[in-house]
Amino acid sequence: MIPFYENHEHHMVSVNTCSLSFPAHLHKETEMVLMLDGSLDVMAGGCDYRIDEGDLAVILPNTIHAYSNPGGKCIMVVCSTEMLGEYAALFSGAVPDSPVVRAKSLHQDITYAMGSLEREGGQAQNTDVCKALLHLICARLLECMTFKRQEVHPALDLTSRALLYIGAHYLEPLSLEQAARELCVSKYHLSRIFSGKLHTNFNDYINQLRLDYAAYLIRSTQDSLTDICYASGFESNRTFNRAFRKFYNAAPSDLRRRNRDTQKTPEEKYNAFMHKE
Asked: How far apart are alpha carbons 168 and 242 in whole angstroms?
């Protein structure tokens, strides 16, 4: 998964990834995903879509969305509203007829700008360049997407409130009963929200968030697996390892070893191969 967990000084993150999978969530930023090859399942606003090579998904602020079954490579850009300038008011006050723009309707300027944003996505990014590229994307999106005005912003429903609450507390000890109490609903009602609208259960949803964060720490830090276990909200290594194997079909140590291998130089890979037993 990609680093949602970092603080980004320039209010934008852009990545090229082939493992985009994340459970239902929402946030105040605008998010765009351009498929470079293969396909990806996207849930946005309660509807399911599959995007293929050349397609673009646009997720506006405070829209519940999820990604699953990644089968290709994509560029993802997440940006704050302040980066969108004059287009921020449109994106925060309208709803698209569809969040997906198919390849045949996508202007080549958007493809160019998404690639340029991915290259600018490091810590040394030029903020003015990023804003200009985002404005170009927005201008072209107005030509290929149809928006409906949303005169009154609806109050957040229970599903949105639940995801926001869990997103703020999933690294802490958290139970269905506690979450239901904080949201002023019964635990049975909250449980039905997860099974009926999110097609999962409360504990599996929490574990998926924690495991995704653990995988990010394994790939991006040298912290011990025990430290990562507790930093990710798990109460024991045994629980952590069992959940990790269930979700990733591998042990945490396997992921760390594969990550180290991908970072090796060709010479290091050759030497490791020549000296393996």
From this structure: 24
Nearest residue to 114 (alpha-carbon basis) of 87, 136, 83, 144: 136
Report residue 156's pLDDT band, with 50, 70 and 90 as the boundaries: low
Judged by phi (left if over 0) then psi (alpha if -120 to 50, else beta), residue 68 lies in beta
151 has a pLDDT exceeding 70 = no
Locate 276 and state its tokens: 């393996």
β 147-149/56-59 pair status: unpaired
- Give the dihedral sign, CA 90/117/44/163: negative
Predicted structure pTM score: 0.76
Looking up tokens 């139970």 gives: 175
pLDDT at site 94: 73
CA dihedral 161, 166, 172, 178 (to 10 degrees): 60
With beta carbons less than 8 A apart as the criterion, state whether 172 and 233 touch.
yes
Q: pLDDT tens, 4-45?
A: 444 444 478 888 887 788 889 888 889 999 999 999 999 998
Other CB atoms closer than 10 Å to residue 206's CB: what's the count? 23
